[in-house]
User: Fold Phosphoesterase from Kaistella jeonii.
Amino acid sequence: MNTTVINNYSKLKLSLFILPLVLLIAIVLFLYSQNSLNAYQYTKIQKNCFFFLNHHLGQFPNLEYNLTQVGDASIFLSFLIIFLVYAPKIWEALISASLVSLVFSNGLKNLFDVPRPAVVYDNDLFIIVGKTAVGYSSLPSGHSITIFTTLTVLLYSFMPKDFKFKFLWIFFIIALGLFIASSRVGVGAHHPLDVIIGSIIGYISGLIGIFICRKYKILSWVGNKKYFPIFMVLILVICGSLINKIITENVFVFYMALVILCVSLYKIVYVYVKK
Assistant:
């Protein structure tokens, strides 16, 4: 599996950055044409769309709340920890991409400083699921960046060779990403463009992470089992955090992540102690 991933990464070209950059430019030009390159107008032009999506998505609060938790890096990456054993190259790309996405997310949030929906609109007029999000900047959506950063790495890790299956695989990944990311609007935490822009930035971050791990070998130690104890400790810490979350919130996706982490921990320990 690891060989397949390495071969898939080797085929990627820099031209893959063209489409996401064109999309970002198109969004900027649209905002410029609407005189919305400021926080007030940016939120104003999205008001109707936000209320429409929030109303319809918010009809399924339990689903939306579970989906929005997947956007938490500690949850989403928990589902993929098993690849540490079977395809460590994926984790080299994930670590690199996650660091890039962190820089993008923090940098752009500080740059734009757009208020969240709960700060802009009357909270009685739309659906809020879970804790009301009022802190930090709304643009871009950090959850959306995390989701698409991770899914982009997976997209190119397992890209099929056949055109028909390739098309279906790309469609599935994009649809899955948007389905999860849209929950940020459903729970009342983000404006629609926050999610779209965050998704595009996540895609770019994922690509950058892949190119970094392909060119540099600074994370090649990830697949060496003598370093597995580091990941064992990390898994135990995350398990403890999940148990605490289950006690306080009792959300289904936390149980899923905990079970997968425990299975992955068993497999990693087995490989580590095996002669």
